[in-house]
């Protein structure tokens, strides 16, 4: 029984004492050690007092400081965890910290980051002293560089309670005698002056210590009190306050609460982005949703100026807490993903990935859209099993969403997910939805982007599936009534040419491309001519040297093909134009123009034809040296071109010809798209519309994601088309610049505008187009003749009034 009471108390102390930390040897009764908690191995700090080596007086001081630390709690005071007393040692376990002196010596911060860090630290110590002096009615009496500690999150914590006293219980001299000689340099001047001592206030001694701390934060350890007169390194915003703090008259030293009030005003030393952010996060639970949304939307722009340790260990945990237990919603995603880049992969898996999985299960369309747009920022941290089992089942629902924006973002996301998807998800599920979208979706931009995305993920497809799908899909796209979709199909054929057998090129690809040489769109014709010449050159080389055939078809059955062979260099222009770009649809454009509207909360059938104006974007296929500004064969009016708003084939599509009615009958149902039936008929047939009068539809309201969407590759040759007639698209060739792309010897000068002549097979269509073109020419001729007749009357002199004769009675 007696052995129970005589057991070692350290067995109940769940912390292991590690190596000592220097700096506190002669400036504290404690020695600081690193420590770890048993079981979890969490890092802590251990303050150790050697009972046998120190006097009874120091032991009493150590026990008194332990009592104060244990019973006094504040966010800016050192956080107590546990303690233990034995015959040999006295232990105190606190949160993991290091002395401020050590932290400043090793600090690598410079410029604005250093200024913000020091301001935040001084603010925290001032706030701690305000709590002790005003709320706790206590004096610390030991404020200096060696009583302040810094956490992993960059927070300054006030410790060193060895000489703390309570108001009303002190002796005739309220400033205690410090037994440690190294600390006497921080004693205020009134300690030895009984006259000045009478005017001392409850906070005057601590304010003197705060002044010493500010001087040491900017200059290093204090060697003697006269050095306090040097203010060269102290910020100008702080100089006036600093001089008041180190004033010889104790009555003139300000109260810490007044210091905070003064310096938090506009232009004050404590008024900066870091302190504003930290104070908001401390009170985030009592903020309303509008305040949180405004805060999170502006937070990302400030993070680059904040110290990294503050971002990782303080701001990020607060954001995660706000996400899990608050109503921060999708607004927290941008700063959370930005800070996630600073984490090591194990920490990312532990902190960010669970949030991502949870967010993908959300039914909120805004959240899902933002996640899909930001996928490139975190996809590299996701494990393949996580993507296939938890992420993809949620993403695939977006293919069937009634909202066009969600569908187009889902198509884009597959580019980032493809490398991590398993065989079934990529080669069966994704392609099944792609086939349906390309044939039945009523948004031309989505059909276009489906083709572009398929070209991008071609390298990840299984060789057998790839050989069955690509030609059929791209050939069908060339018959789409939406011009950018036809152009994307041509470019995709060129970009993925290394996956085609030469027999396919001759029997399927070239016959599909030839009709596009008389396409109403100049850019589609240009793409078709270049691609045809490339394929013909490839066939010609093999004809001259049959031994090249094996090299030309080397990548067809290869799981990880590349564009390294010489035969593929001619398609370099298509790779840069298609596989690195997405078509920007009307839904993207409208989102930028109407930033205050949101379409994500509306049901799917919200697309309405626009009768006033419609805009589409097309991309240049090539970098032509010069393109003649001739009229298109289609019913396009060049006067309605907006040359200042040239878009990109980069973003996704939301506007296009309504091909659903014409293609729905030709394309089979979703269940009928089996893996073994990827032929040209299975991909459906999109009949070419003779005139560009297909109704273009777009969401009536859109969601603004201009700060989330990053164009993948800029296209100097992209064209923005704006029409004032809802039933017509305007076309005007773009003025292209010279290109240095290696096109395998296909010179730009060899391409000339195509003169469209009617023949017996398409006489009705071409006659109609020609008639309209002639009518417009006659109209312009009449206008020019009217102007000439007006000028024939002679020049009008400056200032002459035009007098109109009154009408006859």
From TrEMBL:
Segments of skewed composition (Low complexity): 610-626, 660-669
InterPro entries to which the protein is assigned, alphabetical: ARM-like, ARM-type_fold, CIK-Related_Protein, Kinase-like_dom_sf, Prot_kinase_dom, Ser-Thr/Tyr_kinase_cat_dom
Biased composition regions of type Acidic residues, renumbered to the chain: 747-759
Family label: Belongs to the protein kinase superfamily.
Function text: Regulates COPI-mediated retrograde protein traffic at the interface between the Golgi apparatus and the endoplasmic reticulum. Involved in the maintenance of the Golgi apparatus morphology.
SUPFAM superfamilies the UniProt entry points to: ARM repeat, Protein kinase-like (PK-like)
Region named Disordered: 592-669, 687-710, 724-809
Gene Ontology molecular-function annotations: ATP binding; protein kinase activity
Name of the protein in its database record: N-terminal kinase-like protein
Residues covered by the Protein kinase domain: 18-270
Compositionally biased tracts (Polar residues): 699-710
Biased composition range(s): Basic and acidic residues: 628-642, 765-788
Superkingdom of source: Eukaryota
């Amino acid at each position: 029984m007696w052995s129970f009471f005589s057991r070692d108390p350290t067995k109940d102390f769940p912390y292991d004492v590690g190596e000592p930390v220097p700096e506190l040897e002669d400036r504290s009764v404690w020695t600081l050690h690193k420590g770890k908690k048993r079981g979890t191995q969490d890092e802590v700090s251990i303050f150790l007092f050697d009972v046998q080596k120190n006097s009874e007086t120091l032991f009493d001081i150590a026990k008194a400081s332990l009592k104060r630390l244990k019973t006094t709690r504040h966010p800016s005071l050192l956080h107590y965890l546990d303690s233990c007393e034995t015959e040999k040692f006295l232990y105190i376990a606190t949160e993991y910290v290091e002395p401020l002196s050590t932290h400043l010596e090793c600090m690598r911060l410079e410029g604005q980051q250093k200024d913000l860090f020091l301001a935040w630290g001084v603010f925290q110590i001032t706030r701690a002293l305000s709590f002790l002096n005003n709320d706790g009615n206590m004096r610390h009496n030991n404020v200096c560089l060696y009583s302040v500690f810094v956490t992993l999150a960059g927070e300054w914590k006030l410790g060193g309670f060895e000489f703390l006293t309570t108001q009303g219980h002190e002796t005739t001299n309220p400033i205690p005698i410090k037994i440690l000689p190294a600390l006497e340099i921080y004693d205020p001047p009134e300690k030895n002056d009984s006259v000045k001592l009478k005017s001392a206030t409850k906070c005057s001694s601590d304010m003197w210590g705060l002044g010493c701390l500010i001087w040491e934060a900017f200059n290093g350890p204090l060697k003697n009190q006269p050095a306090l007169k040097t203010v060269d390194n102290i910020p100008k915003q702080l100089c006036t306050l600093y001089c008041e703090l180190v004033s010889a008259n104790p009555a003139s030293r300000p109260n810490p609460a007044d210091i905070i009030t003064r310096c938090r005003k506009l232009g004050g030393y404590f008024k900066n982005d870091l302190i504003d952010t930290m104070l908001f996060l401390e009170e985030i639970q009592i903020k309303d949703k509008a305040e949180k949304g405004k805060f999170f939307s502006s937070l990302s722009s400030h993070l680059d100026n904040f110290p990294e340790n503050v971002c990782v260990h303080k701001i990020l945990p607060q954001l995660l807490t706000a996400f899990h237990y608050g109503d921060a919603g999708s607004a927290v995603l941008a700063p959370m993903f930005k800070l996630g880049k600073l984490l090591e992969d194990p920490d990312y898996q532990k902190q960010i990935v669970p949030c991502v999985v949870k967010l993908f299960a959300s039914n909120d369309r805004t959240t899902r859209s933002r996640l899909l747009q930001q996928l490139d920022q975190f996809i590299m941290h996701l494990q393949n099993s996580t993507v296939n089992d938890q992420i993809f089942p949620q993403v695939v629902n977006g293919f069937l969403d009634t909202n066009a924006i969600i569908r187009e973002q889902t198509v884009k996301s597959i580019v980032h997910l493809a490398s991590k998807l398993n065989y079934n998800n990529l080669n069966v599920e994704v392609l099944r939805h792609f086939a349906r979208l390309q044939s039945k979706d009523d948004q031309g931009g989505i059909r276009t982007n489906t083709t572009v995305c398929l070209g991008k993920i071609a390298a990840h497809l299984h060789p057998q599936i790839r050989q069955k799908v690509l030609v059929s899909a791209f050939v069908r796209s060339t018959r789409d009534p939406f011009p950018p979709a036809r152009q994307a199909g041509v470019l995709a054929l060129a970009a993925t040419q290394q996956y085609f057998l030469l027999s396919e090129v001759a029997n399927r690809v070239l016959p599909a491309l030839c009709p596009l040489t008389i396409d109403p769109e100049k850019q589609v014709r240009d793409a078709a001519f270049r691609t045809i010449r490339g394929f013909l050159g490839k066939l010609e080389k093999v004809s001259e040297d049959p031994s090249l055939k094996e090299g030309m078809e080397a990548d067809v059955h290869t799981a990880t093909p590349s564009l390294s062979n010489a035969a593929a260099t001619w398609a370099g222009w298509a790779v840069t134009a298609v596989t690195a770009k997405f078509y920007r649809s009307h839904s993207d454009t409208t989102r930028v123009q109407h930033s205050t509207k949101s379409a994500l909360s509306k049901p799917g059938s919200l697309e309405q034809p626009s009768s006033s104006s419609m805009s589409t974007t097309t991309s240049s296929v090539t970098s032509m040296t010069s393109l003649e500004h001739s009229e298109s064969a289609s019913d396009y009016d060049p006067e309605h071109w907006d040359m200042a708003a040239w878009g990109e084939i980069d973003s996704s599509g939301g506007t296009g010809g309504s091909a659903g009615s014409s293609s729905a009958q030709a394309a089979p149902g979703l269940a009928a798209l089996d893996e073994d039936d990827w032929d040209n008929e299975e991909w459906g047939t999109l009949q070419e519309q003779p005139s560009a009068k297909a109704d273009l539809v777009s969401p009536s309201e859109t969601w603004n994601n201009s700060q989330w969407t990053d164009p993948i590759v800029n296209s100097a040759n992209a064209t923005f088309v704006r029409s004032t007639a809802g039933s017509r698209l305007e076309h005007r060739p773009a003025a292209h610049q010279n290109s240095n792309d290696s096109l395998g010897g296909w010179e730009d000068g060899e391409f000339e505008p195509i003169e469209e002549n009617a023949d017996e097979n398409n006489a009705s269509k071409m006659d109609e187009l020609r008639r309209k073109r002639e009518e417009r020419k006659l109209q312009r001729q009449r206008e020019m003749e009217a102007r000439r007749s007006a000028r024939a009357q002679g020049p009008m002199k400056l200032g002459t009034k035009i007098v109109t004769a009154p009408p006859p009675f």
